[in-house]
Specification:
- The chain is mainly beta.
- The protein has a single domain, classed as Lipocalin (Beta Barrel).
- The protein is 13% helix and 49% strand.
- An 8-stranded antiparallel β-barrel has the order 1-2-3-4-5-6-7-8.
- A hairpin with a 2-residue loop joins β2 and β3.
- The longest helix is centred in the N-terminal third of the chain and has 19 residues.
- 17% of the residues are buried.
- About 10% of the residues have low confidence.
């Protein structure tokens, strides 16, 4: 009986680590939480231990050449492709990444953020932007390659 319990514990531990082996780094398709339609591809990468995200492609029909018309400064009327929309996210003990720079080029607004893998599906990334005490969460989908 003790051997069976021991084996069960080992099996549970092995399978619980499988879901955690996935990384948030890579390419993610953004999904508009209002329409459910895909909008773009974001490349999330690590630099100096921090998390960053850059728009690598716009997939929303008719907006492939979208310009940052509401932006100020150097980004004004520039293509949104190539813009870094996530800067300097730090990982916490709960495997969440938090930071103060999540940029929405359509609104030209910056939000605080929290980003984490969906614990039930490691191919879904939860991206939550905060403005004061209000927040909105989107689900992004992992892109192969």
């Amino acid at each position: 009986m003790i051997i069976y319990k021991f084996l069960l514990i080992i099996i549970i531990l092995l399978f619980s680590n499988i879901g955690q082996s996935q990384s948030i780094f890579g390419k993610w398709e953004t999904i508009d939480d209002r329409t459910g339609n895909p909008k773009g591809i974001i490349n999330i990468y690590e630099k100096d231990g921090l998390m960053y995200g850059e728009i690598s492609k716009i997939v929303e029909p008719g907006k492939e050449n979208l310009l940052c018309v509401k932006c100020d400064g150097d980004l004004k009327n520039k293509s949104v492709v190539g813009i870094t929309i996530i800067k300097a996210g730090k990982k916490n003990k709960d495997d969440e990444w938090k930071g103060k720079f999540l940029f929405d080029p359509e609104q030209a607004m910056t939000f605080r953020f929290k980003i984490w893998l969906n614990p039930d599906n490691s191919n879904e990334l939860k991206v939550r932007g905060y403005l004061a005490f209000l927040y909105r969460t989107q689900t992004w989908i992992r892109v192969d390659g």
